[in-house]
Write a structure and sequence with these properties.
Elements lengths: L12 E4 L9 E7 L9 H15 L7 E5 L3 H13 L2 E7 L4 H9 L3 E5 L4 H15 L4 E2 L8 H17 L6 E5 L4 H13 L4 E7 L28 E5 L1 H15 L5 H14 L5 E7 L18
Parallel strand pairs: 2-10, 3-4, 3-6, 4-5, 7-8, 7-10, 8-9
Antiparallel strand pairs: 1-2
Helix pairs in contact: 1-2, 1-5, 2-3, 5-6, 7-8
The protein binds pyridoxal-5'-phosphate.
Length: 301
């Protein structure tokens, strides 16, 4: 019998057939990260950072876990905090989706809102102020700087991908938020087989609708970001990513979020440049997190 934290990881690798007609010699697979108990890839990083804090003695039961998050990491902290008996305080931009606010509140976490116009960087600045003002009260994992974030993917996501694809993959594609997923997974994959090509996906510009992803040239660059692990970094436009998220829901029954649409956009671009290959990507969360945004109400063109 597992406790809820023991169910993080070991997500399915699903075949995606969306581009099969266009590119018959390119196989595409995606890690279905919404199968994690908190519904996203961020369960892996949050659990890894919390357990690392426990091991180091930095996180004790008298501390409140605090961090800035655009949503999914907050849900992960709130769930794991509740399961392990820690208080959780989350700083998030005021404009994150209603589902996310409701979810963290349901797990008993407290929300502090930062200026919506300042995006995730505004939340980072505010959490730093709060921690500096009261350093003894908080355990601040700082997901943008904490090596235990990419380590979750180095020890988990990448190992699972190698097993599930029987080591056949030739390309890895993932979006950049904290960059933990991309950095940790790519490092392990390249150690295993240096010929595996890695493509990182960020929003095309600073103002975008791809919740969870960061435009690195105009953002506070995460300390864990390791540029040399990326063979390519591509900028994805918002609308084509939304179109692909809608399309994969309607044609394959995979209800995914915006950032999975961005991953698909990069997979299609990649498929157009290679003759054959086995491409693995990550679908970070489910589309049910975004129903209130109207993403799925519009028609696929
Ligand atoms: C929906 C979504 N997609 C992608 C990412 C990016 O993952 P990472 O932070 O590991 O770069 C996140 C991270 O918050 C996310 O919430």
């Amino acid at each position: 019998m597992a406790d809820i934290a023991g169910l993080v990881g070991n997500t399915p690798l699903i075949r995606v057939r969306l581009f099969e007609k266009e590119f018959p010699k390119v196989e595409v697979y995606a890690k279905a990260e919404w199968f994690n108990p908190g519904g996203s890839v961020k369960d892996r990083a949050a659990l890894s950072m919390i357990e690392d804090g426990e091991r180091r003695g930095a996180l004790t039961t008298d501390k409140t876990i605090i961090d800035s998050t655009s949503g999914n990491t907050g849900i992960a902290y709130a769930l794991i905090g509740a399961a392990k008996g820690y208080r959780v305080k989350l700083v998030m931009p005021g404009n994150v989706s209603a589902e996310r606010k409701a979810l963290v509140t349901a797990y008993g976490a407290e929300i502090v809102y930062s200026d919506a116009g300042e995006g995730s960087d505004g939340a980072i600045r505010l959490v730093r102020e709060l921690v500096e003002g009261d350093p003894d009260v908080y355990f601040y994992p700082d997901q943008y700087s904490n090596p235990a974030n990419p380590r979750a993917h180095y020890e988990g996501t990448a190992v699972e991908i190698l097993q599930q694809s029987s080591g056949r993959l030739t390309h890895f594609v993932a979006g950049l938020g904290t960059t933990g997923t991309f950095v940790g997974t790519s490092r392990r994959l390249k150690e295993h087989d240096p010929s595996i090509r890695t493509i990182a996906v960020q929003p095309e510009d600073a103002f975008h609708g791809l919740e969870g992803l960061k435009h690195l040239p105009t953002a506070i660059v995460p300390r864990i970001w390791t540029a040399e692990l990326a063979d390519e970094v591509w900028g994805c436009p918002t609308e084509p990513a939304y179109d692909l998220a809608r399309e994969v829901a309607r044609r394959e029954g995979l209800l995914v979020g915006h950032s999975s649409g961005a991953a698909l956009w990069a997979v299609r671009r990649l498929a157009g440049t290679i003759e054959h290959g086995v491409v693995v990507t990550v679908f970070p969360d489910s589309g049910d997190r975004y129903l209130s945004t109207g993403l799925y109400g519009r028609k696929t063109s």
